[in-house]
Structures are given as structure tokens and as C-alpha cells.
Amino acid sequence: xxxxxxxxxxxxxxxxxxxxxxxxxxxxxxxxxxxxxxxxxxxxxxxxxxxxxxxxxxxxxxxxxxxxxxxxxxxxxxxxxxxxxxxxxxxxxxxxxxxxxxxxxxxxxxxxxxxxxxxxxxxxxxxxxxxxxxxxxxxxxxxxxxxxxxxxxxxxxxxxxxxxxxxxxxxxxxxxxxx
Length: 179
Description:
The chain is mainly alpha-helical. The protein contains 8 helices and 4 strands. The chain has helices at 4-20, 32-39, 55-63, 78-106, 113-118, 121-128, 130-142, 169-172; strands spanning 48-52, 66-67, 73-74, 108-112. The strands form 2 sheets. A two-stranded parallel ribbon has the order 1-4. Helix 2 runs parallel beside helix 4 and helix 6 (121-128) packs across helix 7 (130-142). The termini are far apart.
């Protein structure tokens, strides 16, 4: 007996393929639990990419002020930043452990964000093929502008996306106070 949720996912992805005419559908969800559900969904030929950011990059990101969708700045007190950082590292470890299990069972690619940010060619050519990768690479190098349709259901808020290395954490990461 197939659960209703998996039957619905199967129908959803079949409809996306039919309406878009796409052979490959990229789901940029960050949830490893959702990836496991997709893996169990009949009719999908799932290929998993585990994009891993260096933990120093995550901590640096958590230490910065964040800009909200309305343009305002969100500031965090030192104590809150410390809690956010510890929570982020715990989630990082758990997600990557679970992703390792899924990759062992299903296959796929583990890709370091820093490597991908420097050069997307190998990955996109492997996943999309030479011809399709060329068009995507051009867009990534020039930046994806606001006018381009982007369906970002799960993940970061995207505005004028441009993939670029950001390794300031190597030299600028503040030392976290001891707990």
C-alpha cells in the first residue's frame, strides 16, 4: 500500500514534467527528510546532490546581520548568535549524516559548496550534459536577474542570484566566546 503523500508527490512531479516538457526537474529543497520521501516515491528516478558548505562558512553567515525581505536589518545579541551557531552546527552534522546514508543507498554526488562556487562546469556537465550545461553556466556567470522566473519553494530567498566563492570566514570568522 502506497501512502497518500507519496501518491500525491508522484502525481505532482508527473504534472510538472508534463506541463514544463522538462526531462530533468531540479528540486532545490534542503530537507533530507523530503529527499527520503522523494526516494520512496514511485515513478521518480531520483538523483541526489548533497551540497555541503564548510562549517566555518555557516558560522560566518550566522554571525552577520541578516537583511530581511522588507530591507530591514536583523541584528542578534551575542548570546543569541552563540545559540544559533550551536544549533546550526548540530543541524549541519545531522543533515550530512542522514545525507550520507541516502547517498550510500541511492547513489548521488556529495559536492562541497566552495568547490562548486569556484567552478560549476564538472557538476553541471555531469548532471545535465555538455549542451544544456553551457546555457546554465552562462547564466550563472552573468548572474540570474530579477526578471528571470525562479521558483524557490524551499530554501533561501533568492534575489539576483550569482554563485561566487565567499571564503571570508577563513580570515574574518569571529572567535566564539566560551560557553
